[in-house]
């Protein structure tokens, strides 16, 4: 069965957002509210496989401002999770069906925490999967220094060298040693990345979202007091990686037991961007978590 998909645009302050609705909004009920899938800077395309496993629910995906089909009109400066949270508020309100369930991945998980902090009444359940808010981990000084170094490398040398450092950071297991950020970065060619600088500085991750996302400081008091049910999730294969460690640190501060999902940081992927996780078991686990109240 092919699920009906409609695409819409929404003008917000400084951007025009594009979002997709799978299924008819008229079918939404109290037991199965809209399921909103969000990433950052990953756009809606990354959730194609995961959305296909929820054809019994209305599923909404969107491209965050500055990525995919969502065009910024506010320049190319750095963005914050609070700005993304306001975009999400406008999107949920535009849907017009009250509180939604949210599955949020990576930077989207950070934006989801910001959304619940600011507008808890709009979210019934937030499943925040590996939010890379690195200032929450015990080795936060080393982690933040590494993020700053990646940003400086991007401004100085371009995408290839900076992205190579970013990939290496995400793959690093365990606490970062002192001086990690000062060590030479890997060869971009080893990751299939360009070694020449093309002069552009508008990359959605490295130029627009990296520092705002990784530097976000959750308001733990507001999250604990929110009416939203907050679930922190980590990947089974992500143990000791920085994004998973950040998720565990946030869960601990909130007094929550983290939910362990199949696979890794992109465990829901079914070939999008050439990457594969375990999307069917991942979707089964997500359904179980969402159905638990």
Automatic annotation (TrEMBL):
One function term, GO molecular function aspect:
hydrolase activity
Q: Which keywords, in A-to-Z order, does the entry hold?
A: Hydrolase
> Where does the AB hydrolase-1 domain lie?
33-177
Q: Does the keyword Hydrolase apply?
A: yes
Q: Does the keyword Hydrolase apply?
A: yes
Q: Which InterPro entries match?
A: AB_hydrolase_1, AB_hydrolase_fold
Kindly give the Pfam families that the UniProt entry links to this protein.
Abhydrolase_1
Q: What is this protein called?
A: Alpha/beta hydrolase
Q: Which organism is it from?
A: Streptomyces spectabilis
């Amino acid at each position: 069965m092919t699920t009906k998909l409609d695409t819409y645009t929404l003008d917000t302050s400084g951007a025009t957002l594009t979002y997709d609705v799978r299924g008819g909004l008229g079918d939404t009920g109290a037991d199965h509210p809209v399921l909103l899938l969000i990433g950052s800077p990953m756009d809606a395309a990354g959730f194609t496989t995961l959305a296909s496993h929820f054809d019994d629910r209305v599923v909404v995906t969107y491209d965050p401002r500055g990525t995919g089909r969502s065009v910024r009109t506010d320049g190319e400066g750095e963005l914050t999770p609070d700005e993304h949270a306001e975009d999400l508020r406008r999107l949920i309100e535009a849907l017009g069906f009250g509180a939604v369930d949210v599955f949020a991945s990576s930077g989207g998980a950070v934006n989801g925490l910001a959304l619940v902090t600011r507008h808890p009444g709009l979210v019934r359940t937030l499943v925040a999967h590996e939010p890379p808010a690195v200032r929450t981990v015990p080795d936060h000084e080393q982690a933040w220094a590494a993020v700053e170094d990646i940003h400086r490398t991007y401004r100085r040398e371009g995408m290839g060298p900076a992205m190579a450092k970013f990939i290496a950071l995400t793959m690093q297991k365990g606490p970062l040693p002192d001086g990690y950020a000062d060590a030479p970065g890997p060869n971009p060619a080893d990751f299939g990345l360009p070694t020449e600088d093309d002069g552009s500085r508008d990359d959605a991750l490295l130029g627009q979202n990296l520092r705002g996302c990784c530097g976000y400081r959750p308001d733990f008091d507001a999250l604990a007091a929110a009416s939203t049910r907050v679930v922190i999730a980590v990947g089974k294969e992500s143990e000791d990686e920085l994004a998973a460690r950040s998720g565990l640190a946030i869960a601990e501060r909130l007094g929550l037991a983290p939910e362990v999902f199949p696979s890794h940081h992109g465990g829901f992927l079914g070939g999008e961007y050439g990457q594969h996780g375990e999307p069917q078991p991942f979707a089964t686990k997500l359904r179980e978590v969402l159905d638990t109240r």
